[in-house]
Amino acid sequence: MKKQISRAITTVLSLFLICNIPGLFTLAHAKEVTGTDQPLITVLSPMGQPPSIQLLAMAPRMNTLDGKTIYIVDDGFVGGDVLLKEMVAWFERNMPEVNAVYKRKAGSFTDEDPALWAEIKEKGDAMIMGMGH
């Protein structure tokens, strides 16, 4: 039993020394190279500098959805169509006076779809866009 405790203490002390020695060597090496105790590397933030954002006001809320056409637009995120088509079905079941139209936007989520935007401006009263993530 005493041998096991002795081995455990020896192991812990050895690990302590092994883990701390690289730090000591690094500081000693930094002093040799730079003449100071300053670290040899500079760490930069991986977040970078985000561009400034222009805040826009939200669109005014409609008084009613009765008789309105709501476009529900899918940006192509995998599985998003399932949720958005269920939203259209919900409008059909619970608010039949609302015309809910499902559309899939052309291209990836960052691409423009001028034809769809023109259709929504001409025929739609509002839009819900499903964004992935």
Summarize the structure.
This protein has 133 residues and is of the alpha/beta class. The protein has 3 helices and 3 strands; from the N terminus they run H-E-H-E-H-E. Helix 2 links the parallel strand 1 (69-74) and strand 2 (99-104).
Describe the fold and architecture.
- It contains 3 helices and 3 strands; from the N terminus they run H-E-H-E-H-E.
- With 133 residues, it is α/β, with parallel strands linked by helices.
- It has 2 domains: 1-42, no CATH class; 69-130.
- It has a 3-stranded parallel β-sheet, with helices on both faces.
- The two termini are 56 Å apart.
- The model has no long low-confidence stretch (mean pLDDT 83).
Which features does this protein show?
alpha/beta, 3-stranded parallel sheet, 13% strand, 2 domains, single chain, elongated, 133 residues
The number of E-state strands comes to 3
Q: What is the total number of structural domains?
A: 2
First-last Cα distance: 56 Å
Helix content: 40-55%
> Element order, helices and strands?
HEHEHE
As laid out across the biggest beta sheet, the strand order is 2-1-3
Q: How large is the share of residues in beta strands?
A: 5-15%
The shape is: elongated
Can you lay out the helices and strands and say which pair or pack?
Blueprint: H1 2-34, E1 69-74, H2 80-94, E2 99-104, H3 114-123, E3 126-130
